[in-house]
From TrEMBL:
Protein name: Indole-3-glycerol phosphate synthase
Family named by the database record: Belongs to the TrpC family.
Alphabetic keyword roster: Amino-acid biosynthesis, Aromatic amino acid biosynthesis, Decarboxylase, Lyase, Tryptophan biosynthesis
SUPFAM superfamilies registered for this protein in UniProt: Ribulose-phoshate binding barrel
EC numbers on record: 4.1.1.48
GO molecular function, one term: indole-3-glycerol-phosphate synthase activity
Residue span(s) of domain Indole-3-glycerol phosphate synthase: 11-253
Gene Ontology annotations of biological process type: L-tryptophan biosynthetic process
InterPro entries assigned to the protein according to its UniProt record, in alphabetical order: Aldolase_TIM, Indglycph_syn_Halo_TrpC, Indole-3-glycerol_P_synth, Indole-3-glycerol_P_synth_dom, Indole-3-GlycerolPSynthase_CS, RibuloseP-bd_barrel
Superkingdom assignment: Archaea
Catalytic activity reported: 1-(2-carboxyphenylamino)-1-deoxy-D-ribulose 5-phosphate + H(+) = (1S,2R)-1-C-(indol-3-yl)glycerol 3-phosphate + CO2 + H2O
Gene source species: Halobium salinum
Pathway(s) per entry: Amino-acid biosynthesis; L-tryptophan biosynthesis; L-tryptophan from chorismate: step 4/5
Gene3D superfamilies membership: Aldolase class I
Length: 263
């Protein structure tokens, strides 16, 4: 454990310990990725809010497990207008698997983000996806090297940040997909003001070709509009879509949250 591990919630420490133990793939992958920015542009063009809907059967902050077939859930999310999907592949804390991801990616035609906690280059080779996640806090100084390694394999990389310093590091490393996580992985508290305070003062600093994604804690159409007003090109929504009821109509709550369609 290092000093910054000690500042993390026990659940996150446990996730990170498991990530460090997880084996990588045996062969270097070469991926033909579906473009996330193009999927966002296509959603915008037909009046949908660009939403990355997340297949997250359970999590440290939700009660119970959604047992439905993940492929069926994924299809319903796409029917609800999701521009892309995020699939948890971490088994112990999120009920996910790499098999789920492969089955889902084969069943839909939108980009799929592998939502896992990658800490080593060989872990990129565990399963094909269109986008991989690099969490600035977890990968530290390895960020530029892992970003390059991901792109060399054909992946797009969503670099996740939580503060202005991490945004700076992500941009300096050349990230073109940046997710601002409203969930503080130290305390597991969610504050939508995070996206606003990280992006607001740095709007000029973020190049036009960088796609900004607001992640976590988006539970209503009003939250979605708030994040869009703050500059989010797309929204990553998990728990509120995986909540009880129809995943398709839960997804529509966000994909239809345009400024005109106040609800
Ligand atoms: O979701 C959790 O409880 C969680 C706990 C500890 C570390 C990470 C966690 N979530 C990972 C995510 O990035 C979220 O699943 C994703 O941003 C969607 O968030 P939400 O819409 O709030 O479910």
């Amino acid at each position: 454990m290092n000093a910054s591990d000690e500042e993390m919630a026990p659940a996150v420490r446990s996730i990170l310990d498991a990530a460090r133990e997880r084996p990588g793939g045996e062969e270097r992958l070469a991926v033909d990725a579906r473009s996330l920015p193009e999927a966002f542009a296509a959603a915008e063009a037909d009046g949908r809010v660009p939403v990355v809907a997340e297949v997250k059967p359970t999590s440290p902050t939700t009660e119970g497990t959604r047992e439905d077939d993940p492929v069926e859930l994924a299809r319903e999310m796409v029917e609800g207008g999701a521009a892309a999907l995020s699939v948890l592949t971490e088994p112990a804390h999120f009920g996910g698997s790499t098999e789920n991801l492969s089955r889902i990616r084969a069943a839909v035609d939108v980009p799929v983000l592998r939502k896992d906690f990658l800490v080593r280059e060989d872990q990129l080779d565990a399963v094909e996806s269109d986008v991989v996640l690099l969490i600035a806090r977890f990968v530290g100084d390895d960020l530029p090297r892992l970003l390059e390694a991901a792109e060399e394999r054909g992946f797009q990389a969503l670099v996740e940040v939580h503060g202005e310093g991490e945004l700076e590091r992500a941009l300096d490393a050349g990230a073109t997909l940046v997710g601002v996580n409203n969930r503080d992985l130290g305390k597991l508290e969610v504050d939508l003001g995070t996206f606003e305070s990280v992006v607001g003062p740095n709007r000029e600093r973020v190049p036009d070709d960088v796609t900004l994604v607001a992640e976590s804690g988006i539970t209503t159409a009003a939250d979605a509009r708030r994040m869009r007003d703050a500059g989010a090109d797309g929204l990553l929504v998990g728990s509120a879509i995986m909540a009880d009821g129809s995943v398709r109509s839960n997804t529509e709550t966000f994909t239809r949250a345009s400024p005109e369609g106040k609800s």
